[in-house]
Amino acid sequence: QATFTVGFYTVTASPAFRISHGSSEQQECAAVNADLEGKFTLRCESGSLVVDSACVPSCLTSAQATFTVGSSTVTASPAFRMSDGSSEQRECAAVKAGLEGNFTVRCQSGSLVVDSACVPSCLTSAQATFTVGFYTVTASPAFRISHGSSEQQECAAVNADLEGKFTLRCESGSLVVDSACVPSCLTSAQAPLVVNPYTLAVSPNSTMLNGSSNQMQCATLHAGLEGTLKLRCDWGNLSIESACVASCLTSFQAPFSVGPYNVVTSPASRMANGSSEQQQCSAVSASLSGSLALHCESGSLRVESACAAACLSSHSASFMVGSYNLSVSPASTMANGSSVQRQCAPLNPNLEGNFTLSCTWGSLKVYSGCTTSCLTSAQARFMVGAYNVVASPDSLMAHASSVQKQCSALNSTLEGSFTLRCQAGSVTV
Predict the structure, then answer these.
(1) Per-residue confidence at 231, pLDDT binned at 50, 70, 90?
(2) Where would I find the beta strands (DSSP E) of 173-290?
(3) What's the alpha-carbon Rg for the chain, to the nearest Å?
(4) How far apart are CA 174 and CA 151, in angstroms?
(5) Mean pLDDT to the nearest integer, 155-180
(6) In angstroms, rounded to a whole number, what is the distance separating the alpha carbons of residues 142 and 144?
(7) Are 233 and 184 in contact (CB under 8 A)?
(8) 402-406 and 417-423: which strand pairing?
(9) Do 250 and 270 contact (CB within 8 A), yes or no?
(10) Which residue, 244, 239, 252, 253, is CA-closest to 273?
């Protein structure tokens, strides 16, 4: 026997036949080890075997070679036993899913050497995360993407709030995103609107595309508004270009003062901004007369008042006529600045003439033209010689009137006549 090594194999060989000294015998290496190939020669020198080996190891299907592709470590084995120096080309995908291209396995002295042209592709399980405004989005390929290839997707497919498209590129097994996505504005988006006295939150009626604008009637936001506004969507953010103005509702109130009266008025119907409404002051308060103008200015009421205090039938004014202390009231409400003439007799049957009742800012004033008549009980005393006589009217005498009477009616011893005059309720002779 002769022992020799081939690579990491230790081989023992024996002659197939008796070898004479100085002779030799050639054998197939595979005859001593199935993993070897080539031939070796056994020479006999003085009874000892000497080996001249040309054996080389082959590469078995159990052999492995490890190589790296991107972040992946890949192990390859021959599909068949390989002779030394031979090579075998394989599909990269055959050794690891997700790889593409080819690699070559070479057998060198029983060891596998790999020449790789493998590159990773991007599988549907791969993910790429990117941001669009305040959205963080994760995307995966719809299909396997080869290295250097790309796939376009709708932004809405990864987030319903987005519009536009994005491209997924595969670079050595990693996804790279080229995004043209922009956020749209959903019906849940809000923009503040302040129109005195209202503070509102405005939302689109339907989803708005980026860069688009919608017109809305202000009245749809609040019954107290009028005009139109423009709602604009910019990168998912709503902005408002408002031309809304506040109208004045019937529930609005405008307080104002007239002399001692503190009163409140409201529109009879909804007032448009900039409009006016005329009202009678008496409709606001029975104690007032005149008219007022109610103006609506950006949702605020302004009163332009020409109201004045009236004089009610419950008001009264006192005045004196002679010895009579009199009180008078209007028959009905009197407007400020108005006057009415009335007869004195209804106040007292002993009076005559007229008086004027006037109303000034809720106060009554009497301009009296009343005078007192002379009653039959009125007396005038005078002397005629030695006689002290008393004269009285036979009937009611009007003020400033006179009557001639016979003296004998006063005393039978007298003759002639006298004149009885009435002045402010007193009679004189």
Answers:
(1) very high
(2) 174-179, 182-183, 191-195, 198-202, 213-217, 225-226, 228-234, 237-242, 245-246, 254-258, 261-265, 276-280, 288-289
(3) 64
(4) 13
(5) 93
(6) 7
(7) yes
(8) antiparallel
(9) yes
(10) 244
Look at residue 82 in the predicted model and tell me its pLDDT.
92
Helix, strand, coil percentages (3-state) for the chain, rounded to 5, are 5, 55, 40
Model pLDDT for residues 80-116, shown as the tens digit of each residue: 889 889 999 999 988 988 889 999 999 998 889 999 9
Conformation bin of residue 337: beta by default, left when phi > 0, alpha when psi is -120 to 50: left
Beta bridge partners of 153: 166
The neighbouring-strand residues paired with 397 are: 374
Write out the two tokens for 177.
């995103």
- DSSP symbol at 248: B
Whole-angstrom Cα distance, residue 76 to residue 9? 22
> Which two three-digit tokens encode residue 242?
């408002």
393-to-133, 377, 413 alpha-carbon distances in Å: 113, 8, 21
Q: Which of 244, 248, 303, 304 is nearest to 271 (CA)?
A: 248
Contact 362, 259 (CB under 8 A): yes
Other beta carbons less than 10 A from residue 213's beta carbon: 13
- In whole angstroms, give the CA distance from residue 371 to residue 355: 10
Whole-Å CA distances, 64 to 84, 105, 106, 323: 15, 10, 11, 145
Tell me the one-letter amino acid at 30: A
Distance CA 49, CA 39 (A): 16
Reduce the DSSP state of residue 148 to 3 states and report it: coil
Q: What is the 3-state secondary structure (H, E, C) of 361-386?
A: CCEEEEEECCEECECCCCCEEEEECC
Residues contacting 69, CB < 8 A, separation 6+: 92, 96, 99, 116, 118, 119, 120, 173
Contact, 147 vs 98, CB < 8 A? no
